[in-house]
């Protein structure tokens, strides 16, 4: 079959440089230690994200509870007429405006919470990625000596 001009990568080619069976004990231990650190970093990031999701859900439940309490108070006030119909509708309009502003602030807070957690988790994984690259380079340098 034709090569189609595709160059072989040293990361894929089964040559001597990539023959895992030629790794020494310390090299294998270093590779396994690196993979263990990768797994630990993924687990830590997953737990962090799970905690973040739970915090977002708890905060959303707080918002729902606040909304229900506000609606209950509004319904109570609307049910017991005090003042003219025009005044009650003005009060309702003011309440609706306040609810909209609160919902907007709540959505912003939720987005900021989620963004912060995601930034921390991706930062952790990014650091681990570069540490792993350094570890692999170190193993390769030792091997080539």
Write up this protein:
The chain is an all-alpha fold and 145 residues long. The chain has one domain (26-144): Helix Hairpins (Orthogonal Bundle), CATH 1.10.287. Helices cover 79% and strands 0% of the residues. It has two helices and no strands. The chain has helices at residues 25-79, 85-144. α1 packs antiparallel against α2. The mean pLDDT is 84.
Write the layout of secondary structure elements.
Blueprint: H1 25-79, H2 85-144
Helix pairs in contact: 1-2
Number of domains as seen in the coordinates:
1
| CATH architecture type | Orthogonal Bundle
The class by helix and strand makeup works out as mainly alpha
N to C succession of SSEs: HH
The coarse silhouette is rod-shaped
Uncertain residue segments:
none
Helical content band: over 70%
Number of helices: 2
Strand content: under 5%
Largest sheet: none
Number of strands: 0
Distance between the termini: 37 Å
Just give the CATH class: Mainly Alpha
Write down the Rg: 30 Å
Q: How confident overall, as mean pLDDT?
A: 84
CATH fold-level topology: Helix Hairpins
């Amino acid at each position: 079959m034709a090569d189609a001009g595709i160059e072989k990568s040293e990361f894929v080619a089964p040559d001597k440089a990539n023959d895992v069976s030629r790794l020494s004990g310390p090299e294998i231990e270093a590779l396994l230690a690196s993979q263990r650190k990768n797994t630990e970093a993924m687990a830590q990031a997953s737990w962090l994200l799970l905690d973040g999701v739970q915090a977002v859900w708890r905060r959303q439940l707080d918002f729902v509870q606040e909304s229900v309490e506000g609606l209950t108070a509004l319904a109570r006030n609307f049910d017991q007429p005090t003042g003219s119909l025009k005044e009650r509708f003005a009060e309702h309009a003011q309440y609706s405006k306040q609810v909209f502003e609160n919902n907007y602030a709540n959505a912003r807070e939720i987005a900021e919470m989620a963004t912060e957690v995601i930034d921390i988790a991706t930062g952790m994984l990014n650091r681990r990625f570069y540490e792993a690259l350094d570890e692999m380079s170190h193993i390769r340098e030792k091997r080539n000596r």
